[in-house]
């Protein structure tokens, strides 16, 4: 049983003013594995005050000094990789394939941020003006549970790169992972007050970060509904806001696609991170001509997927993070059938042989139309909807007929053709045939999927303000 009694403020682990406790569970067994003591609004204000005190010195740091900090953070995470992997496996239950990406990625983001700083022109000439890119001010970050370690590291790396200080409110459901990561980050020896982390509820700690006038910048990853509330609150004090929100990504399977390769790409996209991913491609658009062939292939491919705990290296899909999330996904599987979609594979309940744990049967619906809720709302579980299209124009229209626009997918064999389709999609990122994205390329969404971008120079500039000195 892991009991977490402290938060991280002003360079030290301290006992919070808040006294409420939150239970932590292993989602693969449903067993309670720990408790975390939650901070409150007073703790958030103490963390903000520490960050504010540290900001003037951090603002004056040189790019070389910030690069040194980023390298120290990178090395600290690398040194704690095994412990981070274990914490994520136990508390989140991600399959080994996702773990193999997540922990290395958490250290990589510091290296990438350092390279961005090294290549970025913080001062430049435009006519008779010297334009200086300065840190926007004290930053706040609110991060979700579905890749807790990676989100904390990404937002911290960007703040350090920009020369600012930060207060982070991670998901309370990820407190063991957060504590393990903080123990690593503490070893990097950042100046006091540069990094502050307060465990707590969104409506308590998150709300204070959103409204506090000493926070100049807020970066949030999570649901669209919460993002809307943060944006509304932050507007009162003119905070700069980056929001990376929900998604309902389309996968357009073109008629020339090689199904021997494409089907594996479809499943990788739809069920990545056990379906608990904003970037999941949960709407598969297939032409009427190839519909029967594709659905037949999918039945066979999904049958070969294995759902199970992180402790089983052959598991492809892990559990949902909580009982509440499991029930949410079950309700959508039931809703899809009520709406008239055909259950191709999967369905309600746990997979065969798994009598405990918040596991979901990987589920595929066919006969889905784009007005159904299962095609329009983010389910956040291993549920894929197949929609038919007559021609390419209709496929693009269906793909764009959504409130979301985070990440889309195009599958085929003609590279130029796929790029032409990609250019017509209203989305922040398009992945062609599961090609790996350059980690410096911008990430973020159109429409209700968010505002702003993360990673590389675009992500850095979201934490900077230009000042023109005219002479």
Automatic annotation (TrEMBL):
Reactions catalysed according to its record: an aldehyde + NAD(+) + H2O = a carboxylate + NADH + 2 H(+)
Keywords per UniProt: Oxidation, Oxidoreductase
SUPFAM superfamilies xref list: ALDH-like
Record-linked CDD domains: ALDH_CddD_SSP0762 (cd07138)
Pfam families in the record: Aldedh
Entry EC no(s): 1.2.1.3
Matches recorded under InterPro entries: Ald_DH/histidinol_DH, Ald_DH_C, Ald_DH_CS_CYS, Ald_DH_N, Aldehyde_DH_dom
A molecular function (GO) term: aldehyde dehydrogenase (NAD+) activity
PROSITE patterns membership: ALDEHYDE_DEHYDR_CYS
Aldehyde dehydrogenase domain residues: 14-469
PANTHER family tied to this protein: ALDEHYDE DEHYDROGENASE, ALDEHYDE DEHYDROGENASE-RELATED
Family: Belongs to the aldehyde dehydrogenase family.
Name by which UniProt lists this protein: aldehyde dehydrogenase (NAD(+))
């Amino acid at each position: 049983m892991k009991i977490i009694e402290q938060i991280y403020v002003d360079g030290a682990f301290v006992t919070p003013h808040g006294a409420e406790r939150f239970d932590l569970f292993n989602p693969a067994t449903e067993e309670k594995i720990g408790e975390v003591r939650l901070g409150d609004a007073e703790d958030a204000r103490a963390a903000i005050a520490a960050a504010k005190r540290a900001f003037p010195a951090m603002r004056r740091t040189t790019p070389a000094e910030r690069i040194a900090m980023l390298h120290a953070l990178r090395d600290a995470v690398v040194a704690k990789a095994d412990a981070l992997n274990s914490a994520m496996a136990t508390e989140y239950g991600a399959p080994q394939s996702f773990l193999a990406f997540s922990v290395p990625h958490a250290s990589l983001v510091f290296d990438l941020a350092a390279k961005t700083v090294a290549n970025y022109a913080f001062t430049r000439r435009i006519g008779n003006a010297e334009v200086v890119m300065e840190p926007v001010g004290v930053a706040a970050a609110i991060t979700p549970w579905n890749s807790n370690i990676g989100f904390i590291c990404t937002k911290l790396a960007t703040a350090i790169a920009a020369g600012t200080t930060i207060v982070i409110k991670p998901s309370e459901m990820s407190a063991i992972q957060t504590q393990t990561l903080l123990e690593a980050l503490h070893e990097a020896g950042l100046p006091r007050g540069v990094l502050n982390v307060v465990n707590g509820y969104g409506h308590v700690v998150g709300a204070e970060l959103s409204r506090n006038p000493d926070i100049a910048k807020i970066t949030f990853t999570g649901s669209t509904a919460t993002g809307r509330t943060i944006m509304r609150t932050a507007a009162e004090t003119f905070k700069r806001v980056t929001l990376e929100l929900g998604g309902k990504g389309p996968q357009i399977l073109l008629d020339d696609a090689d199904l021997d390769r494409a089907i594996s790409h479809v499943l990788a996209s739809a069920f990545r991170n056990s379906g608990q991913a904003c970037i999941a491609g949960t709407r598969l658009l297939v032409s009427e001509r190839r519909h029967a062939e594709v659905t037949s292939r999918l039945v066979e491919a999904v049958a070969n997927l294995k759902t199970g705990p992180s402790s089983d290296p052959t598991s492809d899909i892990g559990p949902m993070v909580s009982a509440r999330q499991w029930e949410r996904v079950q309700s959508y599987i039931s809703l899809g059938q009520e709406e008239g979609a055909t259950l191709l594979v999967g369905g309600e309940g746990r997979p065969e042989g798994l009598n405990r744990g918040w596991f979901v049967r990987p589920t595929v619906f066919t006969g889905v139309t784009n007005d159904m809720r299962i095609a329009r709302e983010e389910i956040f579980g291993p549920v894929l909807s197949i929609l038919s299209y007559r021609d390419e124009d209709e496929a693009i229209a269906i793909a764009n007929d959504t409130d979301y626009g985070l990440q889309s997918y195009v599958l085929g064999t003609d590279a130029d053709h796929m790029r032409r389709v990609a250019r017509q999609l209203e989305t922040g990122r398009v992945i062609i045939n599961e090609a790996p994205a350059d980690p410096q390329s911008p990430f973020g969404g159109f429409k209700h999927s968010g505002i702003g971008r993360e990673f590389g120079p675009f992500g850095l500039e979201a934490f900077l303000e230009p000042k023109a000195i005219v002479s």
